[in-house]
Sequence to fold (811 residues):
Amino acid sequence: MMGTLWQDLRYGFRMLLKRPGFTAVAVLALALGIGANSAIFSVVHKVLLSPLPYRNPGQLVWLWETHPSSGIKAEAASLPNYIDWRTQSQSFEGVAAFAQASLALTGEGEPERLPAAIVSANFFSVLGVEPALGRSFVAEENEPGKQYVVILGNRLWQRRFGANPKIIGQAITLNGNPYTVVGVLPPGFKNPTTDQSKQAELWAPHAFNLEQAHRRADYLGVFARLKPGVTAEQAQAEMNTITARLAEAYPETNSGWGATVVPLHARVIGDVGTSLWLLMGVVGFLLLIACANVANLLLARSAARQQEIAIRRALGADRFRLVRQFLTESVLLALVGGILGSFLAMWGVEVLIALSPRNIPRLDEIGLNWQVLAFTLLVSLLTGVVFGLLPALHATNPNLTESLKEGGRSSTEGIRGGRMRNFLVVSEIAVALVLLIGAGLMIKSFVRLQEVDPGFHPERILTMDLVLPAVKYKEDAQALGFFDQLQGRVRNLPGVESVAAITALPLSGGGAVESFEIEGRPSSSMPSDMSVDAEFRVITPAYFATMGIPFIKGEGFTERQTKDAPSVIVVNETFARRFFPGEEAIGKRINTGDPSRQPWRTIIGIVKDVRHEGLDVEPYPQMYTPLAQTPRRAMTLVVRTSGDPLGLVPTIRSELAAIDRDQPLYNLRTMEQVMASSIARQRFNMLLIAIFASLGLVLASVGIYGVISYSVTQRTHEIGIRMALGAQTRDILRMVVGQGLVLVLFGVGIGLVAAFILTRLMSSLLFGVTATDPLTFTGVSLFLGTVALLACFIPARRATRVDPMVALRYE
Fold:
């Protein structure tokens, strides 16, 4: 057995080397298909299939707050609710919480603002992670005044502190406060969060000050570890009981609110799974097209080898032995294609990482490992069998009498082989059409997304984040003075048209949502299915003018609206329509807190809706208040310039240092970059599907060209006779192109039916276009048909140039 296998391998290699052109084309087609599958699988394997890097990750679950009547399915938790969940639940070994934050590291070196996480003391123990150096937090460090300890991320420890093992016990300055370093985490540790672009570099305990906490201040991410033997369904039932108990105890804040338990892995993946499985299906289709192409090449080559096969059969070779020989050759082709595909996959993974949006989870862990290489080997072997079996069966069943005749090659090629090649071409066209329609829908969706009015003018706007440490800016007046002074300095810089500040930029999400009460309308009088809350943002007076947000009615803020002046507020169109339908909103008063302690705010203006969560998310009710009346220490500076915004960064940094040398600027971006980042996921999906669909189009076009070209070669004698009997050029063109047209029509028809069914799977990825958009289906079908007919026309044109005298001597 091994001896004959070795003979098959040597013979297969000789046959492949004997026809280098055929081998090169086949290997390249397979390498493209296999390489694309390996590259995408490397992402799918790490993001979707690999367990999270925590102890027993299957026991970890995420806890969301929900409000079914308002359609809220996933909301962060408040501190009081988290504490109640933790103390009342019996299904969990531990319940931990964290909030994303940023802390300014000052002292030695340049000031730097770092992404951080403010966590419960049991954060690391629930995850099952131990620090590489030092210790974890203890429960007492969640008490107010005792939270000034910190654990460093491994990368920060190496980058900023030179991997000094003596850092444990030393103090570093964060937000103006001395924090004692108690631990350093192992390399590669990440927070269990979806947005990997905001991964923390240091961790500090959360000060659990329940006296100042509000039950609707939802900002904590909460996760838990199930006790052994407890299922997520049992935990969900217990959480339903707990949230019902809280709704009864705190009806004003918890009525209608529940909680849902989901696996932590599903939370970390977020909605990226749909996109990745779609891409996996796309590259699978691309591989099918490549297989059909190579199968057609093998069929054509087998026709040329019919005399060889007939002689071997006549000499006693059984059909199984010959099929094995053909399969050996096709598997060799596939393995060589797989090897080349692996190198293409290595390059492809780098391209994927470069093109991927930064918020794809576990992006930095993606690469070729033994699992991906094993997948590549398996795909190569299966591919070799799939595209080699039909040609092998066809080639090893010749008509011995006809094949052994002199000149019997053309006559014995037969109708059956032609039908098989036609079937493969029809399949290629159908699959290519599905890919192209999918790409067309994604492109049209992306164009529609870019056409959405964000509600502002993003051109020539520079943004940068600032967070003032409370220990240095204890009084509100100090913080207000800082922002006033900085805006004044920046406003006077050459090239600056206007400057303002806001707590959270449009299209960046993350803005606070505040409940409120309308004067004269108690909460009990509002519809039960209406959530009386809105996005809440604090701005400086020039914000609307700087961002180019127009007023619909009323007026904006001025410098006269200080802390001692009557409290005012500006709302958006959606706010006015939802809460004041059919009546005038200007002059109405609302309160965002306890009316006995918080002032009533008068609505003085209505501005155009601004997209804050994303271009594909409808605007939510929005409220804006002036910074002077609602002091904040965390603001984003927005600067409209007359030229290149990024050119002003050094000058603005110098002006900031002149006011406070320990205050770092961070997260510097233009608004155009913010917009591009907000649609990065959609751009990524559209670009990859378009690339793979284009490759499918090329392979399908090559396939139909090869079949028609081979048909012309086989029919050279017939064409010569037709021309000798008076057939005109147009007659030959009609005959050859007509043959291709039939294949194209069949392929397009089957492809349309398949696309109508399969594109529904991508409905959740589309914006402003249906999965069965008739214009896209029609346009793509016409485009593919045109390209395919062009591929038919080239060999048809060559057929018209056949010399009848030469053709009559053919064979």
Observations:
- The first helix runs from residue 2 to 18.
